Structure formats: C-alpha cells, structure tokens
C-alpha cells in the first residue's frame, strides 16, 4: 500500500517535471503572453501559500500613498493585495496586454467597490503614461513572457520617478522562471541597480532602484 502511494506520487512528480521541461524549451524559443483562459489555474491555494498576496505587497515595499504600476496582473489577486496597502491617497494602475484580463479585473474592482485601482489595456513596450510618474513598478511571473526585455525595461525606466523602484517576483514552478543572476544582469544593463534580493532559488523577489536619467 505504502509503496503504491509512493509510486503514484513519483509518477505525478516525473510527469510534472517532463511537462515543465517541454514547456520551458518551447517557451525559450517562442515567447508570448499566457493564454488568458489559463490564468485562473496559476491562481490557486498552493501558490497563495507560497506567495501570499498581502505579504507579497509588503515584500515589494508597497506603502500607503504611493503611485504604483502592476504589469501583467493576471487574475488580479496580487493587484488587490497591493491595493490594500495604498490607502485612499495611493493609486495602483494595472496594465495588461490581454483585454479579457483587464475586463475581468475591472469587474472585480467594481464588484468589490475598490476606489484606488485602475485597470487598463496596454503593452509594456508602450506605456500610456508620462515620464517619471510612478514610485514603484512591480511584476510577478511576467518579465520572461516579454520577448524584448531591454525595450520594456527602457519604458519602466522612463515612467519611474528618480529613485523609483522596479520589483520582480519569480517562482520556479513557472515555466518562464528566469535565474535571478541573469535577470539582475539584464536589469542592471538598463540603468537600474539592485537594492535587495529576498527569498531563495525556489521563490525570489528582486528590488531595483532607478539610477541616472
Ligand atoms: C503568468 S501571468 C502572471 C499574472 C500575475 N502577475 C500572477 O502572478 O498571477 C503573466 C501576465 O502578463 C501579461 N503580459 C504578458 N506580456 C505582456 C506585455 N508585453 N505587456 C503587458 N502585459 C503582458 C499576460 O497577459 C498575463 O496576464
């Protein structure tokens, strides 16, 4: 009996590993946004245990009164977690390239009567915002879905205030997971410097500060 359970668990683990590896290889060559129909699957109880929405916002350094940009909100769970910290003086704008995602987030915002969040369809390559308007930009398991990362980083740099923060959270379970070292190199090449690394190989957060103009 015990051996059978062990075999089943091993089977599940190996199947997951094979699927994960295949998806990783495909995604290495073909980068595109996650199909919106799959977004609800990445928001699940296991993930919320590893990356609790409210605590993730604290980890990101989100504080009352800030103007914050959430790139790629997906199901919006982390967006609403972040909004709780901003208070009525703060503002969170969530942008996503996928209109359906923004439509669903907008419905949530209206249903829950949230006043400090705005949802807009936009591409990370062309942010519909003036220069130097955000205190902080964050994205969770998003950056490696963007084919031209330096181009997006240039936009993040443009819309951040001087000394504004750029924050990435990543999870190994995501087939697009980037190694922290490689991501750090790319971001530092775009005129940011690393302030803090939190977490471990399985789950990490990198906090960068905008440097220079
Ligand atoms: C893997 S999901 C992550 C969702 C959410 N941040 C989370 O962690 O649950 C990636 C999100 O990034 C969005 N995305 C991908 N490329 C984008 C781009 N170029 N500009 C804006 N959003 C993009 C996708 O549509 C999707 O909502």
Care to describe what's here?
The protein folds into two domains: 1-30; 33-210, Rossmann fold (3-Layer(aba) Sandwich). The model has no long low-confidence stretch (mean pLDDT 93). It contains eight helices and seven strands; from the N terminus they run ααααβαβαββαβαββ. Strand 1 (67-71), helix 5 and strand 2 form a beta-alpha-beta unit. Helices cover 42% and strands 24% of the residues. A seven-stranded mixed sheet has the order 3-2-1-4-5-7-6, with helices on both faces. The longest helix has 28 residues, at 2-29. By secondary structure, it is an alpha/beta fold. It has helices at residues 2-29, 39-42, 45-50, 53-59, 77-86, 99-111, 149-159, 180-189, and strands spanning 67-71, 91-96, 117-121, 134-140, 160-171, 192-199, 203-210. The structure holds S-adenosylmethionine (SAM). S-adenosylmethionine (SAM) binds at residues 33-34, 39, 42-43, 71-75, 78, 95-98, 101, 123-124, 140-142, 145-146.
């Amino acid at each position: 009996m015990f051996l059978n359970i062990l075999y089943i668990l091993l089977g599940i683990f190996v199947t997951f590993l094979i699927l994960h590896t295949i998806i990783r290889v495909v995604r290495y060559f073909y980068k595109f946004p996650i199909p919106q129909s799959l977004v609800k699957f990445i928001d699940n109880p296991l993930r919320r245990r590893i990356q609790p929405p409210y605590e993730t916002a604290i980890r990101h350094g989100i504080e009352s009164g800030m103007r914050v940009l959430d790139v790629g909100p997906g199901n919006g769970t982390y967006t609403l977690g972040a909004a709780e910290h901003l208070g009525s003086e703060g503002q969170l704008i969530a942008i996503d390239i996928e209109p359906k995602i923004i439509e669903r987030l907008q419905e949530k915002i209206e249903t829950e009567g949230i006043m400090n969040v705005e949802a807009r369809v936009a591409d990370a390559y062309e942010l519909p915002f003036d220069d130097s308007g955000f205190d902080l930009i964050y994205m969770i398991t998003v950056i490696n879905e963007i084919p031209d990362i330096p181009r997006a980083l240039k936009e993040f740099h443009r819309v951040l205030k001087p000394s504004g923060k750029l924050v990435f959270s990543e999870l190994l379970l995501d087939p697009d997971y980037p190694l922290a070292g490689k991501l750090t190199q790319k971001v530092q090449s775009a005129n940011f410097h690393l302030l803090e690394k939190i977490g471990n190989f399985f789950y990490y957060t990198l906090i960068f500060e905008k440097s220079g103009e």
